[in-house]
Amino acid sequence: MKLLRYIIFITFTLLLTSVGNKALATSTIFFQQVPKQIAKPIDTSKKDTTKVKMKKGAGGLDDKIEHFANDSTHIDKKNGIMHLYGKARVIYETFELDAEYIRYDSKNNIIFARGITNDKGKYYGRPIFKMGTDGTGIADSISYNTKTGKGNVDGIFKEQEGGFFTGGRTKVQPDNEFHVSGTTYSTCNLPEPHFGLHITKGIATENHIITGPVYFEFERIPMPLGLPFAFFPKPNKKSSGFILPTPGEDATKGFSLTNGGYYVILSDYWDAKVTGNIFTNGSYDLNLGTNYLKRYKYGGNLNLAYSSTRNGLEGTPEYKPQKNFHIGWTHSQNANARPGTTFSASVNAGTSTYFSTTAANASYDINQIAQNTLSSSIAYGKVFGDGLFNLTAALSHSQETQAKTISLTLPQVSLNMSTLTPFYGKNSVGEQKWYQKLTVGYSLQASNTVNTREDMLFDKDGLKRFKNGFQHNIPISLPFNLFQYLNFNTSVNYNERWYFQTINNRYLENPTGSPTVVTDTVNGFKRAGEYTLSTGMSTKLYFRKKFANLGKIKGFSHVMTPNFSFSYKPDFSSSNFGYYKDQELYTNDLRPGKSVKTGRYVEDYQGKRLKYSIFEQGIYGGPSAGKQASIGFSLDNNVELKVASAKDTTGTGEKKIPIIQGLTFSSSYNFVADSMKLAPISFGGRSQFTDKLGFNFSGSLSPYAVKNVGTVVNAGTANQSILPSYREVDSYRLPRITSVTFSTDFSFNPDALKSRNKNVEDVKNQTPAAGRTQEETDRLQAISRDPNAFVDFNIPWNIALSYSFNYSNPLGRKETRTISNTLNFNGDFNLTPKWKIQFNSGYDFKAKNISYTSFAIYRDLHCWDLSASWIPFGAYQSYSIDIKVKASVLQDLKLSKRKGYYTKY
Predict the structure, then answer these.
(1) 420, 451 in Cβ contact below 8 A?
(2) pTM of the entire structure?
(3) Which of 69-78, 360-369, 516-525, 691-700 is predicted with the least confidence, judged by mean pLDDT?
(4) Is residue 552 situated within a structural domain?
(5) Where on the tree of life does the source sit, at the highest rank (predicted)?
(6) Which range (226-240, 671-685, 815-829) has the least confidence?
(7) Is the pLDDT reported for residue 134 higher than 50?
(8) Mean pLDDT, range 356-363, rounded to an integer
(9) CA atoms of 256 and 363, how far apart (whole Å)
């Protein structure tokens, strides 16, 4: 409630004290009529008035006051009174005053402005005042004594940074002190606001406001909510202070006070906020948040949270407190702060049940509550060697909240060298020769990672579970063109891995089934190198056809892009390299050192020994098995129709309709493979027929037949038998579909999608520096994660559908077939111009069940919002009802009623 600006306004009315009559010899201020073009008292940004500087006189004022009256100006020299009638206007510097009637009494030193009442009893022409960019204020009347410095402003209506002061009387005192009575503060912009804080009386000075009784009123009806007195400091900058909690009620946790605490300014670049939630059932949450910003350097925030939650009745297992914590940290560096060096952080870590147990710190954000993973990354990057090398190092973490597993990478290092052309120097001139196009690159990756359960991460063997290694890659390529239309590329790729641990497998005999595998870790440095030679060719083929007698269809275009490649790689599973070992059988004894070799080996159905890689558990894997001399081929297709444009009035306009985009078929043939030389044929593509409808598809085809080869069980015993076992065999047949995926989405009202996307973009672009507090920005960013949170009453209805279909049958048999298809739909519609209903649901055809479903109802109450949301069934079954003020300045003025999804009774 910044009444300081009222002081400035009244101070400028003092400038009118030297109006109009020559009897006041000490005055050096004169009125000058201004032209009629200033007809709009609110918008004065385009006024063009001439101001003439006057010599400073005894009055201390050196500028000219301008005046204008649409009807007439009357000066009563005898009584020293000047009257301005009909849209009267007075301007002094950046101060402007408009009223239907303005009067100055020089004998009594009183300036007065008011509106008038017409024949129908309507009061119009109220005084309108404005100073610079401070906004416009309206009053019923203004009276000021220029000699005593006292005055009255009655029936004021003025906006102050998102709020409005309405009614009452303001008395101006000589010492720039203001006494107010009967004034209402509200965020409702109506002359008769729906609600407000009624200030019965108060005193405003430059630095603080002191009031008597203050109470809340609704529709001008006093409510039993108020304070006998209040003190409001008016600092000119951010300051430390208490944060009032928000009362609420939860069906399980009881009554609550949420988001209460203390805010502290630590420095010009750093602040902190300690908040908490407390519930009557004994649950509580503690949060520490801090923000830091060094302009043009860096900025970020850190949040630490701890909670103790009870969700059951006393005496039940759920009543035992559940302890959880969470850490969040974001940091970004200005690109110009340290050119060539970057540092960033995005940390989202903690116990897996924090968000679900605490209902996302009592925010009930379903996107946070239902998230399945938590992930973090802290990254550092540097470019050096005149831009030749790029080094990045990162620490990362990932958690799966359902399985409570965690993956840590401490660290991940990457060193990349820019591609070199060793035979084409900086001083080379002319067109490149074929050998000068040779390029060489280099990259290094190093990693140290562990995958384990949360409860095992910090036990005594936790460090032993880390896996680490290095990987070097050197690509060499030589591109060239042949016959102008054929593009060739020949390359050699060398890859080498370094490890400090390998494995040794023991396959223990199992008479009733497959062998039991026991893996032993072998410490010691091992390297594994492999290389691949390849060459490829690509071109484009165009087919176009024009039609003259096919109605609106004017043409057809088909662009094909064939690609062929040949690659060679030796068999790195050969014993010469030492990278692979035979799967040797041992006696069935799990005791350390007790199982011994039997001299037998695990074999496939053709009697061939199976092998395993000693690097198979390495983080970068190991060299691949099997010799390869294969040819690869793919064909990409794009098909378009040209049709007459309905929007073109000349009859000659055309537009393109994409029928098929990126339809690609690909496969390969390995000449040196023992069997199954032809790889599966994969395909994929997309189509976008209209702005509303498009779909994507992909799949694979197998060219091999499926036969029952049988599996021998209990061989050599009286119980020997053959179980049916189907698999693909090396026998060609017509390709059969082994997998297909299909997805599409459709919006019946594209205007709704455009509006929602625009709202999301606008929120993303908002920053605290743009005029919002950090808390407001955080809440808006939470909304931006859920586009359904936007309620646009300008869009009367919207229905959107999305459908996905997945089919898999690798062996073409009923028992190996899996099908899943899901239909999702969401939308909203206006019951009335002020009521809107939103819904989100779907159906899983495989589970034969309705998927996550929610309903929401919104009521626009002008300056208030009423909303109710309901999840009728499922894991997050709950409801909530909220009524709150729209304006962000009173964002904590709300009432909530909730039933949490964790409710047990």
Answers:
(1) no
(2) 0.61
(3) 360-369
(4) no
(5) Bacteria
(6) 226-240
(7) yes
(8) 80
(9) 13
Q: What is the pLDDT of residue 2?
A: 35
Query: Considering only CA atoms, which of 741, 742, 562 is closest in space to residue 666?
Result: 562
Task: Tell me: do 332 and 403 sit in the same domain.
Answer: no
In tens, the pLDDT along 375-404 reads 899 999 999 988 899 999 999 988 888 788
Q: Into how many domains does the chain fold?
A: 3
Within a domain: residue 751?
no
- Cβ atoms of 17 and 146 closer than 8 Å: yes
Query: What does the block give as tokens for 98?
Result: 């408009």
User: Hey, how many other C-beta atoms are within 10 angstroms of the C-beta on 232?
Assistant: 14
- pLDDT score, position 40: 37
Q: Which two tokens stand for residue 223?
A: 């409510």
Location of structure tokens 């060539």: 340
pLDDT at 754: 56
Instruction: Report d(CA 331, CA 342) in Å as an integer.
Output: 11
Q: Which two tokens stand for residue 373?
A: 């993973």
Pairing state of beta strands 81-92 and 65-68?
A: antiparallel
Q: Which residues contact 229 (CB under 8 A, 6 or more apart)?
A: 210, 211, 212, 213, 214
C-alpha dist (Å) from residue 236 to 185, 267, 868: 21, 16, 39
Q: What is the pLDDT of residue 849?
A: 81
Give the H or E element holding residue 368. Answer: helix 366-369
User: Cβ of 874: how many Cβ atoms within 10 Å?
Assistant: 14
> Is residue 277 one of the residues assigned to a domain?
yes
328 and 415 both lie in a single domain: no
Query: Comparing C-alpha atoms, which of 542, 545, 439 is closest to residue 493?
Result: 439
**Nearest-angstrom CA–CA distance, 7 and 4:** 5
From residue 256, how far is each of 564, 613, 876, 895 by CA, in Å? 68, 59, 21, 11
| 109 and 138 belong to one structural domain | yes
CA distances to 17, 33, 53 from 24, rounded to whole Å, are: 10, 20, 19
Contact 777, 766 (CB under 8 A): yes
Q: 169 — phi, psi (to 5°)? A: -130, 140
Sign of CA dihedral 255, 261, 184, 209: positive
From the list 758, 748, 756, the residue with the least C-alpha distance to 690 is 748
Q: How far apart are CA 85 and CA 99, in angstroms?
A: 9
Matching residue, tokens 């801090």? 290
Average pLDDT, the chain: 79
The domain boundary, picked from 222, 241, 260, lies at 241
Residue range 89-113: average pLDDT?
82
Whether the predicted pLDDT of 25 surpasses 80: no
What is the residue range of 284's domain? 243-371
Could you tell me the CA-to-CA distances from 764 to 295, 311, 728, 759 in Å, in that order? 20, 35, 52, 9
Give dist(CA 436, CA 8) in Å, integer: 76
- Write the DSSP string, 171-203: EE-TTS-EEEEEEEEES--SSS-SEEEEEEEEE
CB-based contact 199:156 (threshold 8 Å): no
Which pair of tokens denotes residue 712? 């021998």
In a shared domain, residues 218 and 131: yes
Q: Where is the domain boundary, 241, 274, 309?
A: 241
- Percentage of the chain surpassing pLDDT 70? 79
Hey, what amino acid is at 109? N
Residues 228 and 342 reside in one and the same domain: no
Among candidate residues 13, 48, 41, 18, the one with its CA nearest the CA of residue 31? 18
Same domain for 208 and 336: no
Is 399 domain-assigned?
yes
What are the start-end ranges of the E strands in 425-540? 439-453, 467-482, 486-508, 516-538
- Where does 233-318 have alpha helices with state H? none
Residue 900's pLDDT is 65
| Same structural domain, 206 and 262 | no
Whether 749 shows a pLDDT value over 90: the answer reads no
